[in-house]
Design a protein that fits this description.
There is one protein chain. By secondary structure, the chain is mostly helical. The protein has one domain. The protein contains 19 helices and no strands. The chain has helices at about 5-25, 30-40, 45-80, 85-95, 100-110, 120-135, 140-155, 160-175, 180-205, 235-250, 260, 265-275, 285-320, 320-330, 335-350, 355-365, 380-390, 400-410, 410-440. Helix 7 (about 140-155) packs parallel to helix 19. It is globular.
């Protein structure tokens, strides 16, 4: 196939994904699968090869990230139901002090966001957020932006969140590097690069969003069910810190050690689930069946989307579409800005950070040499740039936008002023940090 035709096919695939998910609200799983089949056939691949590539890539993606995502969602459920999330929140409130409630909210939001997806985390912490706003006489515009930005920053940048995790699988498969090492490095740098986003969200909330006063909900609002006995502070942090530490140490282990086993993301997250189970005073059918079942259920749709995205990416590679794009862009010295722009355009157009990262990652994987990112740390920097781009911008076509507005009592115009602008500033500031890191790591 000629390069112009393949590039037109790529553009048509992106437009199809955007229109079907944003305009017609079709589930991304089916949209990505249809896009994969259509692109393969339109590119001239034999039908049996298209089917084989899609099913093989679907299985490979599930095999590489399925355990990580399932265990991550299960840890989140156990932290919520056991009361450990509330214990961590109270710890940070005590640490920061009553006078610095927004700072405390940023701290515990960032910590809880490591295993808990941003939508779930905001719903979980929203009643506490409102209670703190009432106690301190703060506007919900401030508290909503502080909490949402802390949760959002990690969600877009670090495993075990679905977008970054799926992108690791795609890029590792495309360039032939060990997936565990790539994921571990992304976890470490992702958590580091998320901090500037949290800081930007905090200062934007406390300096700008405070101009728009939104009263917290009335006192009669239903508060979350709190366990009779909350776990201690130290044990509450272990299910988060233990797997993160094991994965990070494995990424830098040069010799075969037990860390190479325990630090594999799948094993480390399973250890995290075990640690979270010890937060519960009594194991019964509710804990071992219902709570863990909820964790598995929460991961189902995410696994379907990420695996379909892996299949779409495989078709783009096999059909030579990624190679055609790399040839066309070889004269452009875009570097880290290309993955950022690709993810940002897709995010703004169709709303989902996860879908934008998954859709853009196979293209970026084929362009790493042309972008000057094929070296040791280059793929990690490209993954971070994808994550930063997937923040820009959260608005009305993003489900998280509506979670933030509805649970905080913000009207749409105020949310655009205080929250959507915050996501733009977060993405740009994190990109600047990644660009500076590139001078050190490449």
């Amino acid at each position: 196939m000629q390069t112009p035709y393949l590039l037109l096919l790529l553009l048509a695939s992106f437009v199809f994904i955007i229109v079907m998910t944003a305009r017609f609200k079709v589930h991304p799983f089916f949209v990505l699968l249809v896009a994969a089949f259509s692109a393969g056939v339109a590119a001239g691949l034999p039908a049996d090869k298209v089917v084989a590539e899609i099913t093989d890539a679907f299985g490979r993606t599930l095999g590489s990230i399925g355990i990580v995502i399932l265990c991550g969602t299960s840890i989140g459920v156990l932290l919520e139901r056991s009361g450990a999330a509330l214990t961590m929140a109270r710890f940070f409130l005590k640490l920061a002090g009553q006078a610095r409630i927004p700072l405390a909210t940023s701290l515990f939001g960032y910590t809880v966001s490591i295993p808990i997806f941003c939508d779930s985390g905001f719903v979980l912490l929203s009643p506490l957020n409102k209670s703190l706003a009432r106690a301190a006489g703060l506007s919900m515009s401030v508290m909503a932006v502080v909490l949402s930005s802390a949760l959002y920053s990690t969600h877009c940048l670090a495993p075990p969140h679905p977008g970054p995790t799926a992108a690791v699988a795609v890029i590792a498969d495309a360039i032939g590097v060990p997936e565990g090492v790539l994921m571990g490095r992304l976890l470490v740098l992702g958590l580091v690069c998320a901090v500037p986003g949290v800081v930007v969200g905090y200062f934007w909330a406390t300096r700008f969003a405070r101009r728009y006063y939104v009263a917290p909900a009335a006192e009669g609002e239903r508060e979350p069910e709190i366990p009779v006995r909350l776990p201690g502070v130290v044990v509450s942090f272990i299910p988060i810190l233990l797997p993160v530490t094991l994965i990070a140490l494995r990424s830098f282990a040069l010799l075969p050690t037990p860390l190479l086993f325990a630090g594999h993301p799948a094993v480390a997250l399973m250890i995290g689930v075990g640690a979270a189970l010890f937060l519960v005073p009594k194991w019964d059918a509710t804990v071992l069946n219902d709570w863990l079942d909820d964790g598995v259920r929460a991961a189902g749709a995410i696994l379907a989307i990420t695996a379909a995205g892996g299949a779409f990416g495989a078709i783009l590679r096999v059909a030579g579409i990624g190679q055609s794009l790399s040839q066309s862009l070889s004269a452009w010295d875009l570097g880290l800005f290309l993955p950022f722009l690709l993810a940002a355009v897709l995010k703004t157009a169709q709303g989902s950070s996860t879908v934008s990262i998954i859709t853009a990652s196979p293209i970026v994987a084929s362009l790493l040499p042309q972008l000057g990112l094929a070296g040791d740390w280059g793929p990690v920097l490209a993954l971070l740039a994808l994550g930063a781009g997937s923040m820009v911008v959260s608005h009305a076509n993003d489900s998280y936008f509506w979670v933030v507005t509805r649970f905080s009592g913000l009207d749409v115009s105020t949310a655009y002023r205080v929250y959507t602008t915050a996501t733009l500033l977060m993405g740009l500031s994190i990109l600047a940090v990644i660009y500076l890191l590139s001078f050190v790591l490449t």
